[in-house]
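A.,

Following up on our hallway conversation. Structure tokens first:
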């Protein structure tokens, strides 16, 4: 009975903990020095990754790279903007995927290629030495070997760092005196 109540306590606490750890969306204006991705018809139909020089309620000043001159873009011309919250590598995820894929492929190959051992040379002075664990044993050995190789390959692939992006809450549009 005690284990059931512990299970329920954990099940109820996990959603509360995960929502407490998520950060809210950044709000306009964006801090100087931030890396952002901008989608704007002025810049073309692809997202542009830039560094913010400054931002006000009606404009964003940015640089394409560290050597480029600052450029100004009206906040009304920005259709979508995301801010980088940092880069991270995915080594553990890559290693886990590689482990599972390598073990599965290795196990299937080991099972499929198993053959019953035979003594080719009965005149051999050492006799016929054959240790056979059957198709399951070969599958386990090949699966372990494939898992090791897959883990290494997956970790190497996961070293590549990627940005984590959060959408920025839309910039406030300048007030207009319509009808006055």
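Then the amino acids I'd put at each of the 180 positions:
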């Amino acid at each position: 009975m005690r284990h059931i109540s512990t299970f329920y306590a954990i099940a109820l606490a996990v959603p509360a903990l995960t929502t407490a750890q998520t950060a809210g969306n950044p709000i306009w204006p964006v801090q100087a020095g931030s890396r952002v991705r901008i989608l704007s018809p002025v810049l073309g139909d692809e997202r542009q990754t830039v560094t913010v020089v400054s931002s006000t309620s009606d404009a964003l000043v940015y640089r394409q790279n560290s050597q480029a001159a600052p450029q100004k873009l009206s906040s009304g011309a920005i259709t979508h903007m995301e801010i980088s919250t940092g880069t991270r590598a995915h080594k553990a995820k890559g290693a886990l995927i590689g482990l599972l894929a390598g073990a599965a492929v290795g196990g299937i190959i080991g099972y499929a290629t198993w053959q019953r051992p035979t003594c080719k040379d009965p005149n051999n002075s050492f006799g016929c030495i054959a240790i056979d664990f059957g198709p399951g044993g070969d599958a386990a050995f090949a699966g372990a070997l494939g898992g090791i190789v897959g883990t290494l390959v997956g970790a190497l692939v996961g070293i590549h760092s990627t940005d984590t992006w959060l959408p920025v809450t839309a910039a406030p549009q300048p007030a207009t005196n319509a009808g006055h």
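The longest strand covers residues 80-88. Curious whether your intuition agrees with the design.

B.
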